[in-house]
TrEMBL record:
It holds the Pfam family Neprosin. Residues 1-219 form the Neprosin PEP catalytic domain. PANTHER family: PROTEIN, PUTATIVE (DUF239)-RELATED (PTHR31589:SF223), PROTEIN, PUTATIVE (DUF239)-RELATED-RELATED (PTHR31589). This is Uncharacterized protein LOC106763330. It comes from the Eukaryota. It comes from Vigna radiata var. radiata (Mung bean).
Amino acid sequence: MTENNQSSMAHVWVENGPLESTNKITAGWHVFPHLYGDSKTHFYATWTKDNYKKTGCYNVQCPGFVQIDRKNHLGSYFPTTSIYGGPIQEVLISITQDPKTKNWWIAAGNTNIGYYPAALFSNLGSADTAGWGGRTQANLGRASPPMGSGHFPDGNSIHSGYFRSPSVQDNSREEFTPNPIITKSFTDNSDCYTIDYYEPKVGFAGAVEFGGPGGANCGD
């Protein structure tokens, strides 16, 4: 990351609602010098109930997130990160809805960090979309930073950013791996970043690989 106004992130998310009033929660990691004053990799989450028009923020910059764990918190940084070709560092990140309260819990590893109260949202009683991927941002006309490892996916998880064993829960609380028939991938500039979904097979629970080098012509 070469400029304070750049950021690069990887996250899971859940959402519901039309574009102009999307309710959404994301959780993952990002590098964001302007927010933290450093180039470390930080654990983060965001929320919105109107597609970030007037509501929502990173971490606890605005009211909403209820911190529960006393040791781990949004905004903390990971002391070690993966290296291209290995060794690889992994963290389990999840967004889970409590079936009784309808609050949305954010967890890292096996630890519940805290939750977003159901009352924050207008149409996130359940999610109609769940996703995994990466995102970058930079000032208009400036180069876009690398995403993931800075390399395109090639089917080898030690070369690119990835989500191993992606899964979702249905209304009955049963967990399953997304069927390729009901999934879709998206990138707004395949010259800068790509994403691939490798479907489950015997002995392999599936993976989403993503990333790329960024550059000067990645769009707005």
